């Protein structure tokens, strides 16, 4: 009798646990979207409010792991903040303004972004950015160009003729910076892709070289080496897959070749997104490994972009991704210390953890975290936002769900 009671109690505990796993954090797509927008705008506000008034350099702190007052990063951190923020917020802005509360909010942030870019690229502005000192400007001009490609109407299209020319003038200086043999090759490539998109002319040589290198550096099952060697980190999501796909998409649009590689990369991109969805644990945590983990949930750019552009695998539904990414964002944001007293991001992965930052990371670097939000470019009436709550693979597997599919590598 005692054993029977123990078994019943154990069963009830398991049922209670599994029920709470699937219901405790269930939210609707509208609630998720409102939450995403609130976090994105909270992150964006200090950068865009200050820069739109020409006060970014005056107001933004420059925190580094060294803790020194005037670190070398001060020369490049402001372009980092603008370029990285733009790459994440751009798809949402590209939806444009409308009469809804969110549409009116987008109108506000489109205006802030356009004014910020005008200040950042105007040589007469106190917020004029550095495009020539050290190699780092190549990195963040590339993220800026990626953002422009993601918002050609609402950002590039709303810039004045003068600002457009200021941007193109700055990109001429960026072209002079030689990339190192790593993911940096894609920075030169995406700058050329943006110039092609907005002027109809480009220098194909850096693009062809970058594509050839990444064909050689492919390691299998959707993973590229960052250079000749494989690095166990998230640079396949921070840079490699998103920029490869974006460059090849522009080339396809302008009939510049590489159609075979474009199709191969789409399949690899989808496979990597499938892997990323499986990285998410039941509670929204995921492996903390490799370089640049201070970019926080920017880790999941590929998964979010796959949802935005229709590259999710058949094994993963839109609402699985929405719910999984919402859990990830909340896991980070539910810890105090991610922001300082004035709302600027702090060094850290989950809270304020300056010791985890590499020497090349400073306050501006951290805004690559916004790349998790690119799926906000899906309209509010899309299935991504309207479908009901769905547990992601990690939550279903650890909850004992019997119909979870096996995982298979690709050979492409």
UniProtKB/TrEMBL annotation:
Domain of life: Bacteria
Occurrences of domain DUF2264 (ranges): 32-392
Record keywords: Hydrolase
Xref: InterPro entries: DUF2264_N, UCP014753
Keyword Hydrolase: yes
Keyword Hydrolase annotated: yes
MF terms (GO), sorted A to Z: hydrolase activity
Pfam family, one: DUF2264
The protein, known as: Glycoside hydrolase family protein
Taxonomic path: Bacteria, Pseudomonadati, Bacteroidota, Bacteroidia, Bacteroidales
